[in-house]
Amino acid sequence: MDLKAALLLLALAAVWGGSFFLGEVALSEVPPMTITLHRVFWAVPILIIIVHLQGIAFPRSFRIWRAYLVMGALNNAIPFSLIFWGQTQIESGLASILNGTSAMFGAVVAGLLLVDEPLTKNKIVGAALGIAGVAFIMGPDVLTEFNLGNLAQIAVIGAALSYAFASVWGKTNLGSQPPLMNALGMLIGSTSLMLPIVLFVDGPPQLALSTNVWAALLSLASLSTALAYILYFAILARAGAANLMLVTLLVPPFAIGLGAVFLGEQIGTEAFVGFAIIAIGFTVTDGRLFSMLFGSSRTKADSDPA
Fold this sequence. Notes:
Blueprint (H helix, E strand, L loop, with lengths): L2 H24 L5 H22 L8 H25 L5 H8 L2 H12 L7 H18 L9 H26 L5 H23 L9 H34 L2 H17 L5 H18 L1 H16 L3
Helix pairs in contact: 1-4, 1-9, 1-10, 2-3, 2-8, 2-9, 3-7, 3-8, 4-7, 4-10, 5-6, 5-7, 6-11
């Protein structure tokens, strides 16, 4: 990965990590599902302009738009709503740590559902470590004392699982479409899904919001969603999917830092230990570090004189 790709990766981690902080600000005045609607709705016109400037044609196939609707549900509507609701009960930094399991879950789901991505020992062990990290964070009390905080943590894990299924759905149903059009299509799909749900559950969105909340909502749409997808596909093209997965480990530090500095959040020791276990699980799933270490050892052994 070259320097430009590394900088793009840090930028993506910053805008995705910032989404947890911005969501916390917006929750002071806006319900979780309405925040999700704002996030996807305002991102649509931004990406429409970009797609138009790049001369990308809108697909006319009903099958593709149906796939966008499902993708919008799995990659936007469901996970965003679960995470924002989770943040009504737990800190934004903790939510970002739990959401870090999405890479391991994604590897396992792909291994189970995709023929060309077999379920390997690394993926199984990585997922097991991810679950162990989550279990350490939630603690043994979850088995005897169930509360809203525990439910919120489960909701964020559910969001990570939704992202995992979204990646498989996108690969099997949208692989032939231009990446930016896929981003726009799923945002149109998630907006179409969230609008009637929000009107039914929360009522019409209130526009009389404070300047800080409006800034948070528009930043969620423009930075953490529209810009994030542009960065995502730029890194994917420049550095590949394996390097792109590293963003999973970089998002929580940004979210934790913003929460601590601007919201006064304090994350317990168990959360940091759990994050360390999840990070090890990611490293095992990714496999490259272990291949380098063991590969180097073998090479050195082979070159040493007998």
